[in-house]
Specification:
The protein is an alpha/beta fold. Helices cover about 55% and strands about 10% of the residues.
């Protein structure tokens, strides 16, 4: 375990993860985003991008030389072997990038935001895990309104993610975000004090 105290922040689609991570940032806490790390490791000029092109051909590269994410998603969705190959290439690189970001932090603790915190090994980097939980009906309404998509589409996304109750069982701390944004921010401020106390302990 690293000397830096790391809190893993996760939650399903429409749960309020972004509001939560933005608030931690406002409180002076470094936020490391696993989604950003996953994009950085396949930027133009990075070895991983060359490996992906060598494996899947120029179809997965856009005209500007960057990764065609939609095309790559299409390939790995249909081919388990390709998905495993890609994961074995990218997961260690993403993990290393996250680690570098964490170790360079100067704040009291670090927030690691990851939608797949419990589905991957990323939770192993954390001293504590925090789940922003939201009742399913609110989650569907919020996301459909925010992304301007049918509720049925949101339901499919939720169904593809880890079961809500499973996440609740795995998380050390759970904040239920079923009210106004101001309520969520107040809960974040409260748990921030708890984490500060833990790092001082």
């Amino acid at each position: 375990m690293m000397s830096m105290f790391v809190v893993g922040l996760t939650g399903g689609i429409g749960s309020g993860k972004t509001v939560a991570s933005d608030r931690f940032e406002e409180l002076g806490i470094k936020v490391v985003d696993a989604d950003i790390s996953s994009r950085v490791v396949v930027e133009i000029g990075k070895p991983a991008l060359s490996s992906i092109e060598a494996k899947f051909g120029s179809d997965v590269i856009l005209d500007d030389g960057s990764l065609n994410r939609a095309k790559l998603r299409e390939i790995i969705f249909k081919d388990d072997e390709a998905k495993s190959w890609l994961e074995s290439l990218l997961h260690p690189l993403i993990g290393q990038h996250i680690l570098d970001e964490i170790t360079s932090a100067t704040s009291k603790y670090v927030i690691l935001v990851s939608p797949l915190l419990f589905e991957t090994t990323q939770f192993q980097m954390c001293n504590r895990t925090l789940l922003i939980d939201v009742p399913k009906d609110i989650q569907i309404l919020r996301t459909a309104k925010r992304d301007k998509v049918p509720e049925s589409q949101v339901e499919k996304i939720i169904a593809s993610q880890m079961d809500r109750n499973q996440k609740i069982r795995k998380a050390d701390d759970v904040i239920v975000n079923d009210g106004e944004i101001s309520d969520l921010i107040a809960k974040i401020d409260e748990i921030h004090q708890k984490y500060i106390a833990l790092t001082d302990g």
